[in-house]
Design goal:
Elements: E1 4-10, H1 12-21, E2 26-33, H2 47-51, E3 56-58, H3 67-71, E4 78-80, H4 91-97, E5 100-102, H5 107-125, H6 128-136, E6 154-158, H7 162-170, E7 177-181, E8 194-196, H8 199-205, E9 208-211, H9 225-228, E10 236-239, H10 248-257, E11 262-265, E12 288-290, H11 299-317, H12 331-341
Parallel strand pairs: 1-2, 1-3, 3-4, 4-5, 6-7, 6-9, 7-8, 9-10, 10-11, 11-12
Helix pairs in contact: 1-11, 5-7, 5-11
Length: about 350
């Protein structure tokens, strides 16, 4: 493998990767420290210094990598996200330019999120926050319980990617009905036990609506007030995907009104969730669970990411596609670009 130049963004997740990447026979360039909250955006005045000789960019999901950076990097072969999400990368531009995009879609990562989704569903059904409060306040047991079993309920999955498929697998034996909406996954390509329906039907029928989409122009704020009001008043909303898939103002409104039974949210439009966010009113409530985009993270996940990042970068510098490729349709253009770079 020839020596290459790898740019690594500077923030907590990329810091975890830097040690693993440092074991490769390559030069590492670190980016400026993340300023947060929100995306880290690099100054065009720094492009030449940061990207002028770069073969591979490894950038966290809070680092914007747009077309202007790609065009300023004449030797750029690949862009790597250490996690599954690539919303901070202009994948369309990368594909057009023949730049491969890799990501950290390890089984530990996406199946961990599948487990976390089922955990949220069960915790909401059994009213875990309410029952925890009873103990905390040393309150007597209520005479009547309103918790419900997951068994016999309808689970609606918005999106049918790796994580949603893992949810379907993990719900086998729970005796649930599983619906899904995904215009890109026909019924014959869906996992056994999942029935394809239109979004409105899913919202109307489901006892739990769980988000499993990446954020695109088509999915941004796809669940707004109209969609939320189609849900049954006894239904719950679960989001372990991306905050921008929901209209947060609408979510707050329907929860405040009690138009739906509750929610479990692990992702938000702005992260960390601002202290001024009205959603923070629900912290400690009986029917809403809020976690800081960490519910599916574990030792197993964090141990897998540096291994995947190292393998992805190593393969690209060797002239092979990443182990986990987000835009496989770009491979032929990528080969031509790599051949031209030499």
């Amino acid at each position: 493998m020839s020596k290459g130049v790898v740019f690594v963004s500077t923030d907590w997740i990329s810091d975890v990767l830097a040690d693993a990447l440092g074991k490769l026979d390559c030069e590492i360039i670190r980016g400026p420290a993340a300023t947060g909250p929100g995306f880290t955006v690099y100054n065009p005045a720094d492009y030449e210094r940061l990207f002028g000789r770069t073969d591979v960019i490894v950038a966290s999901p809070i680092t914007k990598i747009d077309r202007s950076i790609m065009e300023a990097a004449p030797r750029l072969r690949a862009i790597m996200s250490p996690v599954i999400g690539v919303e901070s990368i202009d994948v369309d531009a990368a594909t057009e330019l023949g730049i491969i995009v890799g990501h950290g879609a390890t089984p530990e990562n996406f199946l961990g999120m599948s487990e976390a989704t089922v955990l949220f569903i069960a915790a909401l059904a059994m009213q875990m926050p309410f029952k925890q409060r009873l103990l905390a306040e040393n309150a007597p047991r209520p005479r009547e319980l309103t918790a419900r079993s997951v068994r016999g309920r309808t689970i609606g999955l918005v999106g049918m990617g790796r994580i949603a498929r893992g949810v379907v697998d993990r719900l086998q034996g729970w005796e649930t009905e599983i619906l899904y909406f995904d215009p890109y996954v026909p019924q014959d390509k869906a996992p056994a036990g999942a029935k394809k329906v239109e979004l409105d039907e899913l919202l109307k029928r489901s006892d739990f609506v769980s988000m499993h989409v990446t954020v695109t122009d088509q999915t941004r704020a796809m669940i707004g007030e109209r969609e939320l009001r189609l849900m049954k008043p006894t239904a719950y909303l679960v989001n372990t995907a991306r905050g921008a898939a929901l209209d947060e103002a609408a979510v707050y409104k329907v929860l405040k009104e009690g138009a739906i039974a509750g929610a479990a949210l692990d992702a938000f439009v702005e992260e960390p969730l601002p202290m001024s966010s009205p959603l923070r009113e629900f912290v400690g409530s009986d029917n809403v669970i809020l976690t800081p985009h960490i519910i599916g993270h574990s030792y197993d996940v964090m141990a897998s990411l540096p291994v995947a990042a190292k393998a992805n970068v190593e393969r690209v510098l060797r002239g092979e596609p990443p182990l986990y490729t987000k835009n496989p349709e770009a491979i032929e253009r990528w080969k031509a670009r790599v051949a031209k770079i030499g």
